[in-house]
Amino acid sequence: MKRVFLTAIAAAVMALSINAETETPINFGNFDKWVTRTITESSVLGGNTKTIYEIGPTQKINGAKAYTNLGGSPWATSNVYAKVMGVVKASGSVTPEARGGGKCAKLTTVMEHAKAIGIINMDVLANGTIFLGQMMEPITSSKNPYSKMNMGIPFKKRPKYLQFDYKVHVPAGKKIYSDGFSAKKTLKGQDYCEVFIILQRRWEDANGNIHAARVGTGRERYGKSTSGWVNKHRIAVHYGDITGQSYYHSYMGLLKCYYAKNSKGKLVKVIEEKWDDANATPTHILVMASSGCGTPYTGVEGMTLWVDNMAFVY
User: Fold this and answer.
1) Could you give the CA distance from residue 166 to residue 305 in angstroms, rounded to a whole number?
2) For the chain, N or C: smaller number of CB within 10 Å?
3) pLDDT category of residue 16 using cuts at 50, 70 and 90
C-alpha cells in the first residue's frame, strides 16, 4: 500500500509539473517607471511647455530632443516630439496613473490643437497607443503615421497567452476623423479599444525589403466600458493559419500597414505575405494596446484604455 501511495503522489507531482504555467513579465510592463519629458513648443504655437511621458527608467529629459528607448525598455508610445518646417510641437495621449502602490498606463484618444493666427489652424485626433518597438523622432509630417513606427522586437519564444490587467471607458461621443488638413468628419459605427499580440517569422531580400509569415495571433477589441479593472485577463495566442476557425475575425488577418528597420537601418514596410506553419519558430513579436482600433486620425475623443502588468504566459 505504501508503494502504491508513493507512486500515486509521484504521478500527481509529475502531472502538476507538466501542466504548470510560467508567467514572464514584459520588461517595464508593470508601468511603474516612466521617463518625464519637458518640451517647449514654438512661439508661433504659444510657446507653451508640455510634459509627455515614455515607458522606461525613471528620469527627466528637458528640451526638444529626439527620444530613443532607454534602459532596455522595449516600449514606445504615441507621445511624440514633432518638428514640421521648424515648428516644434509635442503630443501626449499616454500618461502614467497611480494604481495601488504603483502605476499603470492610461491611453486616451485626444484632440491635439495647433493654432497660430494666419499660419496654422489644425485639429488632429490621436489615439493613445503603446507598442513594442520604437517611435522614430522627430516626427516631420503627419503623412502615414505607421511609417514613423519601428514595429516589433526580436523574439523566438512561443507563449500561450498575453496576460494583463485592463479597464475601459467608452464615452458617449461619436466616431470622427480629423487629420488636421481636411474637414472633420463624423463617421458611422463605433470605435474600439484593442490589444494584440502577433508573432512573425521575418526575412530580408537582396533589395532590403522585409517579408514576414504570420506564426501566432491574438487580438481583441473592447467596445463597452468595464465596471472596474479586469485582472489577469488573457488573450490566447493561436498558431498557424486561423482563418477557418470559429474565433477568427477579419481584423485578425495579415498585416499590411506596419514598418520596421532593415539591416541597413532604413525603415521599410513589413510585407506579411502568408500564414506560417503552426510549429514555426518566430523571429519577432508585436504587442500593441490602443484606445482606438488602428485607423489613423479616427476615434472617439475621450475613449480610454488603462493597462497594467503585461506578461507572457508559457
Assistant:
1) 7
2) N
3) very low
- Copy the grid coordinates of residue 183: 474637414
Structural contact between residues 245 and 217, judged by C-beta atoms closer than 8 angstroms? no
Cell of 106: 492610461
| Selection from 13-22, 51-60, 84-93 with the highest mean pLDDT | 51-60
Q: Tell me the domains of the chain and their CATH numbers.
A: 25-313 (2.60.120)
290 vs 307: CA distance, rounded Å: 10
- Number of residues in the chain: 314
> Is residue 188 over pLDDT 90?
yes
